[in-house]
Design a protein that fits this description.
The protein contains nine helices and seven strands. The protein has 385 residues and is α+β, with helices and mostly antiparallel strands. The protein has a five-stranded mixed sheet with strand order 2-4-5-7-6. A two-stranded antiparallel sheet has the order 1-3.
Length: 385
């Protein structure tokens, strides 16, 4: 009985295994072989059971597994398509961006070149304007000297004319032998008075011409040499006397008459001229008299120039950039905005000094300039010496 039951059990087990293998295992092996052949570059393999009798109305677990694998493969294919599309879009976008970057880089380079050219032109124009402003300050001196010379020369001509007439009358009286001692003495006194007047006026004109000549030479030939600081300032005041007198401005100078400085006198003339003309143009204006105080002190190593006026002062918005080019408070009145810029350049570059400015509205302005007692000599100066 036991042997019979064992044989029956063995035969039933074999039948069950055959049935399971036919219905399940071989289909699983088929699906396994198909999935093993799948990779990202080969997703066209159909995951299906062609040798299985299917019942669409009653799908079993194997059919559901095959459908699930098929859908999973389809999802992977769709995701790969989307990734490829995104990659292609990204590559296209990168190419467009590269083209835009190249275009904008070329445009930026072209703009930079134009800006560099414009900057060079502006710098060149500014330099020309600075030189023109320097010549304009020299022109102010010329106008002042011309006006100052006109008065003594006119007086001298008038006295010379009177002297000529008197001498003719004296000569005629002597020729007619019709002159008394008293009349002769009167003629001599008149001749002496007229001659003295001619001498005084011509001497005054000669001093003005000498002063202006020295200023012109100092500005045209910038050579460092030793000069008297008080006399250098007085030359400027003499040439600008007409402008100061017309504006009703008094200048007080406090400086040792024997103070000597080894530097560039023409640069100091430019500084004095621009400071005074700035005060007349911006600080006082028409019908607004005032006072300019110039104090020059010296130590063994440096000279300090304090220039102060009691005019309108500098407006707060431009006080911090007063030394920048083209900054002015009176552009409508003819201000170019280069006066203080020229002063700054002359002090810091030519004279190797420093300058600062203090101002309060309606309380005037103070410029403090510090210069070395001996300015460094350039190679050009050594060659000229």
């Amino acid at each position: 009985i036991l042997g019979s039951q064992a044989i029956k059990t063995f035969l039933v087990s074999i039948c069950i295994l055959i049935i399971v293998h036919y219905l399940v295992v071989r289909h699983l092996n088929t699906l396994s072989r198909q999935t093993r052949r799948l990779d990202l570059n080969n997703l066209d393999i159909n995951l299906g059971l062609t040798d299985k009798i299917r019942h669409p109305s009653r799908p079993d677990a194997i059919d559901q597994l095959a459908d699930t694998l098929q859908r999973m493969k389809g999802n992977i294919q769709e995701q790969l398509k989307q990734k490829r599309k995104a990659k292609n879009d990204l590559m296209q976008l990168n190419e467009e961006l590269e083209q835009r970057v190249k275009y904008r880089t070329a445009t930026l380079n072209h703009t930079n070149e134009r800006l560099r050219d414009a900057l060079e032109e502006l710098t060149e124009t500014k330099d020309k304007l600075v030189e023109s402003e320097k010549m304009a300050s020299l022109g102010e001196l010329v106008a002042g000297v011309a006006h100052e010379i006109n008065t003594p020369v006119g007086n001298a001509i008038t006295a010379a004319t009177y002297l000529q007439d008197t001498s003719y009358q004296l000569a005629a009286s002597v020729a007619d032998n019709n002159i008394s001692r008293q009349a002769l003495q009167q003629h001599c006194e008149d001749l002496q008075s007229a001659a003295d007047q001619v001498f005084r006026n011509l001497d005054q004109a000669a001093k003005l011409i000498t002063s202006f000549k020295q200023i012109a030479v100092d500005q045209s030939i910038e050579v460092a040499h030793s000069f008297n600081v008080r006399q250098n300032l007085q030359q400027v005041l003499d040439t600008l006397e007409h402008h100061l007198r017309k504006a009703g401005v008094r200048v007080d100078v406090h400086c040792d008459a024997s103070l000597q400085l080894f530097s560039y006198p023409g640069s100091l003339v430019q500084i004095y001229t621009n400071l005074i003309m700035n005060s007349l143009l911006h600080g006082f204006g028409a019908n607004n008299p005032g006072t300019i105080d110039i104090r020059i002190d010296a130590t063994p190593s440096e000279v300090t120039i304090q220039y102060r006026d009691d005019g309108r002062g500098i407006p707060e918005p431009i006080k911090h950039k007063i030394f920048d080019p083209f900054v002015t408070t009176n552009r409508s009145g003819g201000g170019s905005g280069l006066g203080t810029h020229i002063i700054y350049n002359q002090v810091t570059q030519m004279l190797n000094g420093s300058i600062r400015c203090e101002s309060e509205r309606e309380q005037g302005v103070l410029f403090e300039i510090r210069l070395p007692r001996a300015c460094p000599v350039t190679r050009d100066d050594e060659d000229l010496w």
